[in-house]
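hey m, so remember when u said the tokens were messed up on ur end? i reran from scratch. heres the input so u can diff it against urs
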Amino acid sequence: MGSSPLLYSLLRDVADKLEYPVVGKDKKENYTLYDHFKEVAHNRISNLGSGSDYTVFLDHLGIASVDMGFTNDLHNSAVYHYHSIYDSYTWMSKFGDPGFVFHNLMAKYLGLLVLNLSESRIIPFKTADYSFKLEEFFKKYESDIPKSWLNKTLDDAEEENGRKSNQNCGIMGHHNDDDDLKLTLQEYLEKVNVNLKKLQDSASLFDQYLKDLNTQLDNWDSLPFWKKFALRMKLFAVNMKLKYYERNFVNKEGLKGKGRDWFKHIVFASGRYTGYAGQQLPALGEAIEDKDYRGFVEALRYFNSVLTSLRH
């Protein structure tokens, strides 16, 4: 599986509700789809890349997405004739999935996911998972930042190529404190890391708040009228936040200056050189690849402004 971090918890919880049909082995007691996932994928939900059906939803529109499927066992499975004339119903029914056992399991899994998303009184997203992944993605780039950049101030990026942020509609002049311009890049990186930790704390508190609201819902019948009314208002507020949480990562200008402004999501996008694998925090990564200090500072300040807004 690959998905937006918002869905991690839901994907695991639902997988644990379904029995996994062990084929060709002794049946295991209470062995679930989640047990199987932990065994073969080590409980790791991968990052969504690009070049597939979900690309427009996540990379362009900022809608949480998931990509899932069963793959072959390299030791015991028939060769999969992917995208060939042999990729047919006959092959699938005789060799790939006789009895369509795993098709049936996937239908159950997707059905339960949809029911959970549509019927739950609080949208079953977890924001803390996202905050930890953001730190993981960010840390990957820190060691790649050119050492010569670290002692430059952010104001140096403003002056690069003789351009000022207030003369264009770029990121530099948006959602940021001008006092930051006097900081060195090293100092600002430390500020971003602190902000990442604060986001993790606030996201964990928010997830706990959602859990507390669910507890109140479980005791709905015992609540007085005025508490029911207040609870309904709280549910509306949190569901709106959860529904549009992924949209916070959409920058309407996209990967500007790169000829790839169709990609709006600042966390997930198709990589210039990675294709299906995609790239995380692409504006930061591409600025480092291009040795573009100004572009890096712009992307970094925008990223930090998003972290700040998410905390509130």
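this time it looks ok to me. The longest helix spans residues 185-218. if urs says something different then somethings off w ur setup not the seq
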